[in-house]
Automatic annotation (TrEMBL):
Natural source organism: Nocardioides renjunii
Protein name: ArsA-related P-loop ATPase
Residues spanning the signal sequence: none
Domain ArsA/GET3 Anion-transporting ATPase-like stretches: 26-299
UniProt superkingdom: Bacteria
């Protein structure tokens, strides 16, 4: 990484191309709060890596459809789809996909259970509810899908780089907690209670147990309780393997072949969120590659300060209240102040985290909605 400094607290420069070209880097995870251009950054990095010779798959966990639109794909699903019009002259390729948590859950069931047992689980009403909307399911399945992609990449060589676009806000890192939370769920008292009839001998069906299940029947209804018990009994044998795989994926995220990028905009709230992500990744010993500051106001080539511009504008207005030049000078002063404010925010972040390399991406003139726009973002990332 380059460490050229232009101000007292300017961060070291993030060398994006060196990161993308490093063949030992197998996973790049982009995280950050909502509305900072994280999905666009992920897509731009994936495209640039592919056109520099990497075999890339970009996985979005964000439910928005912007990634598909920007890549010219009508719709993304749980299967990697080739992105058309990518320059493959360097030998690279680019696939894109969107996490379908229910489909991923179904795939785990189908892979780990016999056909008859899989059918029973897939048709279980409690499973249908859990796999579709249960809190935390998305994060569990994100870990599962990332692990699947990495294992498949090692097996068939179709991909050598996985770029992950995480959900907006702090939930972007919730998937890091998936193994621990799943273990807590499976080891919880209620789960053990519901599993008692399936695991133990008849003596477990004591008067106390019957009284508890009787109370649950009144609350849940007998049919629902049986559905839950049936599902939990299947889950006990089925998801021990999932728990182990999730823990392996967590270890993979801590390994040297993974790089986390925190994405932010040059705004106080977004940089506070970025600080949270940096602290969390550091605490979990995750390999942080750097910070991407998106949508910064481009610097001006003129040396005219805001104060000088305002003074000149005031002089012109005293002579002509409708002076166009005075209005332009005022606009110049406003822009200089925005640039200074953004620089101050970045310097303050760099003072707190001097070890975090940073790339600054100027704001684009319009929305990014195609590969040309993504290439422009990638060029800006590399020119930092």
């Amino acid at each position: 990484m380059s460490t050229t400094r232009t101000a007292q607290h300017t961060a070291p420069v993030l060398d994006v191309d060196a990161l993308l070209d490093d063949r030992s880097t197998e996973i790049i995870v982009c995280c950050g709060s909502g509305g900072v251009g994280k999905t666009t950054t992920s897509a731009a990095l994936a495209l640039r890596a592919a056109e520099r010779g990497r075999k890339v798959v970009v996985l979005t966990i964000d439910p928005a459809r912007r990634l598909a639109q920007s890549m010219g794909i009508e719709q993304l699903d749980n299967t990697p789809r080739p992105v058309p019009a990518v320059d493959a002259s360097a030998g690279g390729s680019l696939d894109a996909m969107m996490l379908d948590m229910k489909r991923t859950f179904d795939e785990v069931v189908e892979a780990q259970a016999s056909p008859e047992k899989a059918r029973q689980i897939l048709e279980n009403p409690f499973y249908v509810a859990l796999s579709s909307s249960f809190a935390g399911t998305q994060e569990y399945m994100a870990m599962e899908k990332l692990g699947q992609l990495h294992r498949q990449a090692l097996a068939d060589g179709r991909h050598d780089l996985i770029v992950v676009d995480t959900p907006p806000s702090r939930s972007a890192l919730d998937f890091l907690d998936a193994p621990e939370r799943l273990s807590s769920f499976l080891d919880g008292r209620l789960i053990r209670l519901l599993l008692a009839p399936a695991r133990g001998p008849a003596r477990l069906m004591s008067a106390g147990f019957s009284m508890i299940t009787g109370a649950l029947t009144k609350v849940l209804g007998g049919h629902l309780l049986r559905d839950v018990q049936t599902f939990v009994a299947a889950l006990d044998t089925l998801f021990g393997g999932f728990r182990q795989r999730a823990e392996k994926t967590f270890a993979l995220l801590q390994a040297d072949e993974t790089a986390f990028l925190v994405v932010a905009s040059p705004e106080p709230d977004a940089l506070r969120e970025a600080a949270y992500f940096v602290d969390r990744l550091t605490d979990d010993e995750m390999p942080l590659a750097g910070l991407v500051v998106n949508r910064a106001v481009p610097s001006l080539s003129t040396g005219l300060s805001a104060e000088e511009a305002i003074a000149a504008a005031d002089r012109l207005r005293s002579q002509d209240s409708s002076s166009l030049t005075a209005g332009l000078l005022q606009l110049h002063a406003d822009r200089v102040r925005i640039i200074e404010r953004e620089q101050h925010l970045r310097d303050r972040f760099a003072a707190s985290y001097p070890q975090v390399p940073t790339a600054v991406v100027p704001a684009m003139a319009g929305d990014v909605h195609d590969l040309a726009g993504l290439r422009a973002i990638g060029d800006s990332l590399a020119r930092t």
